[in-house]
Design brief:
The complex is a heterodimer of chains A (about 325) and B (about 325). By secondary structure, chain A is mainly α. In chain A, helix 8 packs across helix 10 and helix 10 runs antiparallel to helix 14. The longest helix of chain A has about 35 residues. Chain A starts with 8 loop residues before the first helix and ends in a 5-residue tail after the last helix. By secondary structure, chain B is an all-alpha fold. Chain B is built from 15 helices and no strands. In chain B, helix 12 packs antiparallel against helix 15. The chains are: A mainly alpha (about 325), B mainly alpha (about 325). At the A-B interface, helix 1, helix 2, helix 4, helix 5 and helix 6 of A face helix 1, helix 2, helix 3, helix 6 and helix 7 of B.
């Protein structure tokens, strides 16, 4: 034990290179500390990954997760040829991309706006209030949408009728599902997502503002030429992270907002996987659809990262 | 010129004043616009929540005819009487509290030591281990393999399903690791080892007491995650007695199972009666289930903010 006493970390790295026994003797306590987390992730994240082979096998109750007969790409082919494929892809991409784009822009605008507030008291209040909806559960959000958009006497329905948009059952109409979904998402998360941009803006060197001032810049020009460039690295990282979820459209909210009237636009890959798999027990088929979804997600993430690296030197890895 | 610029640049707090000093009429118009826009944002954020609150204590007829806008009209606590008399709400509440409490304790007990170990630079396996954890943020086995695994482990319809699978959240693990890395000076560890402390001892007696900020932050993140968990109950649990609040809420708010059986207290007009008050009950349910969050929120808000920022500086 005494050998572990005081060593600059560099030196210890050299000395610990004497085989696993030596390593374990010195670091067993760190292993003990990291082991529970490793075990949980191994069981609950990696075992299901191993179970993905179900997508290539005939599910067999007796054989369990990985024992069935190998059938190759049969289930993928079934999915691509199914009449649902085009609808699911269109809906998923439509909902994800609109949420991605608008949900990405809104917090940036909000942060730029809040940052323009002069008095820090007001600033803090505005910030605190805009985060609040982030902590309301999805179920309650959708419940609020339902009462507010009730066709007979909903608050929002009446308000919209006042400005001339009436006669629509907003939650039961294929034309208004996506706007309702995206706008409520912005209402809930824009404030929260703006925190990180506000922090980036607070870190801008004041000399930049002073210098721009002397060059005769007005407030708009300060925003355009100082604030926005300062946000770019943060924007890129967040955009990449979000890209990884392009097809991973929030199962919960879509599922809760679904009804028979809006189903043609609201059935997405995630909800379909649930219905096919859990509700009608077509395990292999559902696994194949889920894997297809994950692979596309992953591709988007890798691509976005590569592009970001090339154009801006900012990347996730 | 340069010297004055440097001088004013040094104190960040003075930025607003130095800007205002040169305000022209254009500037003032701009500021007015900013204030108006912010007022609009604040109103759009708060009003729906406020409306739910006043609608829940107003007569349902007055709400339906649009008389309730700024203040409650014809006070009525009918909705609340119905809700408080409904056993499902209480079961849901109790379950959620238990799952949240037990779950969060396990979360912290698993996450903090792991984050500490991964923050030690001399611990060579930390790089491959971080990859092992981070990979799960981007790739997963999907719903069905997960479902079948839970089935094999006997977690279906078992309350542990709310606790065990979510024991580690990799994002929170990374936040905690960066915190340990950035805010525990290496000298502290060296001093502690000189005094004979090993890793366990150092973690328990030095690292943890210095990390109250991060413990509260990720504790809160976990807490909210458990409190709002709807997915787990929907997919993995059939037994209604084990369902958390969010599932009960779904049934009352969205599936219109609103007190069809239990609403008989008021005069026996049956289904039509329940229907007439369904909306008021919905407003009340939203308040009852969200109030705890709204009430504690102002006190916790700064911790959440801190969490986002600590998470953001990760390398």
């Amino acid at each position: 034990m005494s050998t572990t006493v005081v060593k600059p970390s560099g030196a210890s790295a050299v000395r610990s290179g004497h085989g696993p026994a030596r390593h374990l003797k010195r670091y067993w306590q760190l292993w003990v500390m990291v082991l529970p987390a490793t075990a949980f992730v191994l069981v609950f994240a990696y075992v299901p990954m191993y179970g993905i082979q179900l997508a290539f096998r005939e599910f067999d109750f007796a054989a369990g997760l990985t024992g069935g007969k190998f059938v190759g790409l049969k289930y993928f082919q079934q999915f691509f040829e199914s009449p649902m494929f085009a609808t699911l892809m269109r809906n998923t991409v439509l909902i994800s991309i609109s949420t991605l784009v608008l949900g990405f822009i809104a917090p940036i605008i909000l942060a730029l706006l809040i940052n323009q507030l002069m008095r820090s008291r007001i600033k803090r209040w505005v910030q605190t209030i805009t985060y609040l909806p982030h902590f309301i559960s999805v179920v309650v959000i959708v419940g609020m949408l339902q009462v507010f958009l009730s066709p007979s006497d909903g608050l929002l329905t009446r308000l919209l009728a006042f400005v001339g948009i009436s006669g629509t059952n907003f939650l039961g109409d294929t034309g208004s599902f996506v706007p309702v979904y995206v706008l409520s998402d912005i209402w809930q998360h824009a404030g929260w997502n703006s925190i990180i941009y506000l922090a980036a803006l607070a870190g801008v060197n004041t000399q930049l503002y002073e210098a721009a001032r002397i060059d005769g810049a007005n407030r708009w020009q300060l925003i355009r030429h100082v604030d926005i460039p300062a946000l770019v690295p943060t924007m890129i990282i967040l955009l990449i992270l979000n890209m990884g979820n392009v097809l991973n459209t929030g199962f919960e909210k879509v599922f809760l907002m679904q009804n028979t009237l809006n189903l043609p636009i609201s059935e997405v890959i995630a909800t379909y996987t649930y219905k096919i798999g859990i509700l009608s027990s077509q395990f292999s088929y559902s696994t194949a659809i889920g894997l297809f979804n994950t692979l596309i997600n992953f591709t988007f993430l890798v691509l976005a990262n590569r592009i970001a690296k090339r154009v801006s030197d900012t990347s996730l890895w | 010129m340069t010297t004055t610029l440097l001088a004013s640049g040094r104190s960040r707090t003075r930025r607003p004043d130095s800007r205002r000093r040169r305000s022209s009429s254009g500037e003032r118009l701009f500021e007015l616009g900013v204030l108006l826009a912010c007022a609009l944002v604040v109103f759009a954020t708060l009003y729906p929540i406020y409306f739910v609150l006043i609608a829940s204590i107003s007569d349902s007829g007055a709400v339906a005819t649009g008389q309730v806008i700024m203040f409650p009209k014809r006070l009525s606590v009918f909705g609340y009487e119905q809700i408080l008399g409904d056993a499902r709400i209480w079961t849901g509440y109790r379950n959620t509290i238990v799952y949240t409490a037990v779950g969060t304790v396990l979360n912290l007990a698993v996450t903090l030591p792991a984050a500490f170990a991964l923050s030690r630079k001399e611990f060579r396996p930390r790089r491959p281990l971080m990859l092992f954890f981070a990979f799960t943020m981007f790739f997963s086995g999907g719903l069905i393999p997960t479902y079948l695994l839970y089935k094999d482990l006997g977690l279906l319809d078992n309350w542990l399903v709310f606790i065990l699978p979510s024991a580690v959240n990799v994002y929170n693990l990374i936040i905690a690791r960066s915190f340990f890395e950035n805010s525990l000076p290496e000298e502290l560890y060296e001093a502690a080892t000189l005094d004979g402390a090993d890793y366990f001892r150092f973690f328990a007696t030095v690292a943890l007491p210095l990390s109250k900020a991060i413990i509260s932050v990720i504790g809160l993140y976990y807490l909210v995650q458990h409190w709002n968990d709807f997915f787990t109950g929907l997919i993995f649990v059939r037994d209604y007695a084990k369902q958390p609040l969010q599932i009960v809420l779904r049934d009352i708010l969205l599936s219109n199972q609103a007190f069809s059986g239990g609403a008989g207290g008021g005069g026996g007009s049956g289904g039509a009666y329940a229907q007439r008050y369904a909306d008021q009950i919905k407003y009340g349910v939203i308040v009852v289930s969200t109030l705890p969050v709204i009430v504690v929120y102002p006190f916790l808000q700064k911790y959440f903010e801190k969490g986002v920022l600590i998470g953001a500086v990760k390398g």
